[in-house]
Amino acid sequence: MRLHSIEVTAFGPFADTVAVDFDDLGADGLFLLHGQTGAGKTSILDAVAFALYGTVPGARADGRRLLSDHAPTGATPKVCLEATIGGRRLRIERSPEFERPKKRGVGTVKQQAKATLLWLDGTGENLSRIPEIGDVVKGLLGMSAEQFFQVVLLPQGEFAKFLRAASDERGKLLERLFDTTRFGDVEQWFRERRGSGAKALAEQQKAVDVLAAKVAAAAGIEAGADAEPVEWARRLLADAADVRDSAEAAHADARETDRVNRAALDRAVVLAERIRRRGEALADRARLDVTEPERSAILAERDAAHRAQLVAVLDREAAGAAAESEAAQDELDSTSSVLAKSVEGRSLLDEVPGPPDESDRVRIRPRCEQWSSEVTGLDALIDQQRRLSEIVSRREALEGKRQTVDEELEGIVAERAALPTLVTEAAAAVAESEKAAASLPGLRDARDRAADALAAARELRSRSAELHQLEKAAAQRHSDHNLAHEALLDIRARRIAGMAAELAARLVEGHPCEVCGAVAHPSPAQPEPDAATEDDEENAHAAEQRAAKALTEVRAAVGDATSAVAILRQRSGDSCEDESAAAHADAVRAHDTAESAATQLEGRRRAVADLHERDLALQAREREAETVLATIARDDAVLASEADETGRRIAAAVDGSESLSAKREHLATVVRAATAWLDARLRVVQVRSVAQQRAREAEAAATDGGFTDLVHARAAMRPASRIAEIDHEIRDAENRKAIVAAVLAEPGIAALTGNEVADVEAARAVVDSGAAALESALAAATEAHRRHTDIASYASRLERAYEALVPLRDEQAELTALADVVAGGGANNRKMSLRSYVLAARLEEVAEAASERLRRMSGGRYEFVHSDAAGSHGKRGGLGLDIHDEYTGSVRSTKTLSGGESFQASLALALGLADVVAAEAGGVVIDTMFIDEGFGTLDADALDAVMGVLDELRAGGRVVGVVSHVDELRQRIPSRLHVLRGRTGSTVQVAG
């Protein structure tokens, strides 16, 4: 994988778009990424990670806030990365999820994450779905995001923790980097199989125990099964079969005895019943002979009542007809008195005197019809009178409606007259809003530029003062360095001048001189009073180095401050803070005024359209009102003509004497009274004739029935209940006679002499005794058969269950032993699970790869030693990592390393882990990698060794980016990416 370029917009600390050309920056294979704390060095690495995987490393991923706080409102965070991965050149563009202000109203709305992938080599389908892009990137790199963060973005702080971590913590990181899922699945499979097997074994053992308990319960014993439950159950089954056979034989004997006893009882019961029935039949026959005369008398009574039934019916009809005739006469008298109350009625009564006859209909009906015709005519006139009232009400309503429409029409005319002025004013307002809307983008840009210039002017004041102080400090540091350098030169000259005395001080009598080799030293040189020693020179050199370092630091700070001040002056336009504030206020007012007018554009346009629509609506309403007024005038004229005609007809009918309603009610009363009087007279004629006919029919029926007259026939009449009583008594006697004859004629009863005796109770006692014995034998046989059946059933099931238990028990023992070994227990002496064993092998590979680099960085002194020994207190082992010290030949803990040694070990470990993970991912070639921090703990020699390793890393075209604050690295690495921190966001500069 090689990175070519990246563009970052509104991301992290970067407010605007910043671009980095990695091809140019890493042309010589090594570049430095440096800058102030918080400037955004790590954010460059985050942008690379986000472009590839859609997430950032470590705890920063939990914040889920990638939109820059410095970015303008409405800006969209975006990262665009161009790289070659797996031999394919591509461009990935991602935008994270973020909150943006609502376009209308207040508040924010969530903007969803987006991503695109373009193939720059011309082959393949471009992608826009985030999951598909993630799968393609992971497939090309052959590693997950977690592996990428460890292999390409080497986080030294985390590897220092890894170096000193305990086995459990070290195992967690290795599990994230190396896919041990399949080995974990194997462990899980063994655990699940052991658990399921144990459950199945327990369930099968429980089934065997339950069946053994059921066999014991069926056999009626309390003791359980012995070591061989199948043989034990078979013995119990044989015993139960013997008991069953004995009980069945006893039951057969008892059943035969019971049959003989019950036959004797049945014979005694039959004889006793025949004796009882014979006695009862003889007693009933004697009672029937005594009551025979009484039955003859009631038979004669029933015959006379049957002959009088028809006479009774006709007699009741004649009485009813007579009563109806009297009622009709009373009704006639009542209707005559009602009719006599009116003049017309009295006239009719005078015209038809005498009793009613058939001619009344011809004489009375014409007068009734005449009066009814007059009532119908008056009803029509009353309806016309009501219509006249409705006409008056309708005319009043029309007049009210006409006044309302007149007022509405006046208002419409007045409103239409005022519309032209309103339309002109609204059109002018629309033109004003359109002009404001056209100028709004320029005013917005002017406002934003004024705001940025004001912020830059304010920051410029403080940064200028800071630059002045830094320049003063730089001058002082320069003076201090010159003095320290002069002091070093002076001390070095004085030491050289007194070198002879320094060598003489080390002479030992009898030992050769370091210069001439003589063993005699007759006249050694003596030191001068102002002679300098080696310690003096080293102290002076250290002071000069400290002064040089301080000078370098302050000069770098001056350079950073100078660049920042230049950028701020360019942004502020060389204007003072007051001028910038005034310009910003003017730009804000102009923008707000134009924005307010522009936001009203749509409303003002709608107002113009509403006014035109209002004019059209008023025109339609004016025409409608005029049409309504014409319709009202026409309807009023029609109603007035109808009212005059109706009034003339009513006046002619009343003729000034009484009202129409009173006249109509009087005639209607006369009609009802005359009609009722006619009906009553005709009714009297009809019912009187029927009554006479019914009386003649009753007399004739009495004579025909054999009675002397109607009075004798009435005496022979009986109610239906009495006739039914007589019939019931006669039938009952006949039935009893037939039953007595049938009983005495039965062969068994006819053969009796009257001297027979039946002892039923003695026979029943014998049966009861035999039944008790039979029931006891049956219960014993049933219980023996049930017990044998239950034992046979449970024993058969027990045998099958025990046959299934044996292989389960053997298999579970073997599976438990294997599961313990795989989980790091049992016969596993190393106490390593399968997954830990695989991780230990990977760690051993990492230790070998890391040791090669650590030996070079430490001058051959240190190398890693992997330990697979078990931990203390029974803890699992396999992930131990120690240091072998070649100087002492001992193996010691990594925690004993110094700060610089720990950095060398951590870097070697990180590089070794990167090599192993890359090989694990299919031999992916990582052409671009970053190393983050840790160089400040190294001395010059250690730094040279580390830089040598970094030089080896960039061999073969690999590009290595170093992220560090160490100043000496700026001198060693000419290609640099400087991240500058500012109030409005960070920027980048490329040097070298």
Report on the structure:
With 992 residues, the chain is an alpha/beta fold. The strands form four sheets. Strands 9-13-14-3-15-16 form a six-stranded mixed sheet, with helices on both faces. It has a five-stranded antiparallel sheet with strand order 2-1-4-5-8. The longest helix is centred in the middle third of the chain and has 138 residues, at 360-497. The chain is flat, with a radius of gyration of 66 Å. 25% of the residues are buried.
In short:
The chain is of the alpha/beta class. Helix content is 69%, strand content 9%. The strands form 4 sheets. Strands 9-13-14-3-15-16 form a 6-stranded mixed β-sheet, with helices on both faces. Strands 2-1-4-5-8 form a 5-stranded antiparallel β-sheet. It has a 3-stranded antiparallel β-sheet with strand order 10-11-12.
**What portion of residues is helical?**
55-70%
- Principal-axes shape call: flat
Give the radius of gyration: 66 Å
* Largest β sheet strand count, sense and barrel closure: 6 strands, mixed
Distance between the termini: 24 Å
Q: In terms of per-residue confidence, which ranges show pLDDT below 50 for 5 or more consecutive residues?
A: none
Could you give the order of strands across the largest sheet?
A: 9-13-14-3-15-16
* Number of helical segments with 4 or more residues: 26
User: What is the SS-derived class?
Assistant: alpha/beta
How confident is the prediction overall: mean pLDDT?
79
Strand content: 5-15%
* Count of β-strands: 16
